[in-house]
Amino acid sequence: MEYPLAYLIISLYTLALLLVFFYSLAQLNLLFNYLKHKRSGAHGPLIDLSKKELVPYVTIQLPIYNEAYVVERLLENIALMDYPLDRLEIQVLDDSTDESVEKTALHIEALRKKGLDIVHVRRSNRSGYKAGALKEGLAIAKGSLIAIFDADFLPQKDWLLRTVPHFGSEEIGVVQTRWGHLNRNYSILTRIQAFALDAHFTLEQVGRNAQGHFINFNGTAGIWRKTCIEDAGNWEGDTLTEDLDLSYRAQLKNWKFKYLEEVETHAELPVVISAARSQQFRWNKGGAENFRKSVRKVLAAPHLSWKTKFHGVMHLLNSSMFLCVFTVAVLSIPMMYIKSIFPELAWVFEVTSFFIVSTIILFICYWFTYKNTQGKGIEHFLQYIGLFFTFFSVALGFSLHNSLAVLEGHRGKRSEFVRTPKFNINSIKDSWKGNQYLSKKISPNVILEGLLMCYFFYGMYIAVPLNDFGLFPFHFMLFLGFGFVFFKSLSAKI
Description:
By secondary structure, the chain is an alpha/beta fold. It has 2 domains: 3-35 and 319-491, no CATH class; 46-201 and 213-275, Spore Coat Polysaccharide Biosynthesis Protein SpsA, Chain A (Alpha-Beta Complex). 56% of the residues lie in helices and 10% in strands. It has helices spanning 3-40, 71-79, 100-113, 129-140, 159-163, 188-210, 226-231, 242-252, 273-300, 306-316, 321-341, 346-352, 356-374, 378-397, 399-411, 444-461, 463-466, 472-491, and strands at residues 58-64, 88-94, 118-122, 145-148, 153-154, 172-181, 222-225, 256-267. The protein has an 8-stranded mixed β-sheet, sandwiched between helices.
């Protein structure tokens, strides 16, 4: 190996580690914000819903697309919502192309006969996908407030009574609630998804919102002020995460967002890895697309503090961290050879070993979110240790898949909005086998993930002849993570 190549590998490796380190520092700052907010418990002015003349008109939008397994459950749940019927409208924004359309129409008609103001909105095409459906519904919406729920969400009957009052200030454009998980303990896959989402909905959303930094409407389980949507430029379908896009456009126009950690809205997690893969791809590519679309506007905004700009940039770069992690992983084995061949560069490895602190910071941050949702004490802490490293390993296993999504987003490559299949899974006894919406095609990426599993097994193997075991735990987690994703992806096609 020549010096120029060695220096190139070292430079890329160090740069990726540095970006991950900055991300971990941002998370640590959010932890401080989170803990400070928990102690304060402050709330803004509230609407008194006991005064009939103050009760806002609410439109509930339900965007659905081929949801045969969950649409009836969704409609029955929404029909139970406790709110004055003369101030409530329900829009079923149905872009479905299968037999579920007829079933949905019949169910809507039955609910209408019970006195609900519910309409079935159909389009001739899926232009703009979910964003297009929401925009079309908004044009005819009666409400001044627009609540949105995806098909797999089941809000409590008092959900509107707990969220609508927070629009007491005219500055509030969005109220977002925390996601709960109906099937958290169904499998390892659902547990680690819940683990990651809990961190987002506690540490990140609270930590950012508490200091007035940018947060995002999460696509569902939240309410928009109609005038906020219109003022921000309405829904646009040029990214795969239309929720993040509109969130940033609204906040750049000085609309305030309110996040309610105490209001939990239950939803179903993907139970099969192909569904999780499609969801991860959409979220991560959409994040990169929004970085392209919004980062310059964030940096140029004169009314924003440097701290808000920093957190905004790191927020928009969230998905890009997978690319950094994947770079570190792939280059870690060549780095072992460089260390062996060029002993005069040993100091480089002493410096880069410092970045283990990034993992330590994330371990601490995630513990605070875990104990807030699952409980504290030594027993929960021991469970947390196992779950953290399981999550870390599987996240590493998704790094190729998610990095490709990020690269597509940064390149501006357009792709279709692929919705996540729903299953109506309520217990361990329920099966996802036979779901009509699941794809049986094996992605070429799965084969690459299998090869990467072998690559990192080789990384563990060469530790012996090189007498260098510093990266052995890292390579072991990479081996397990890519192995998990590879074998789960194959078994899901059988």
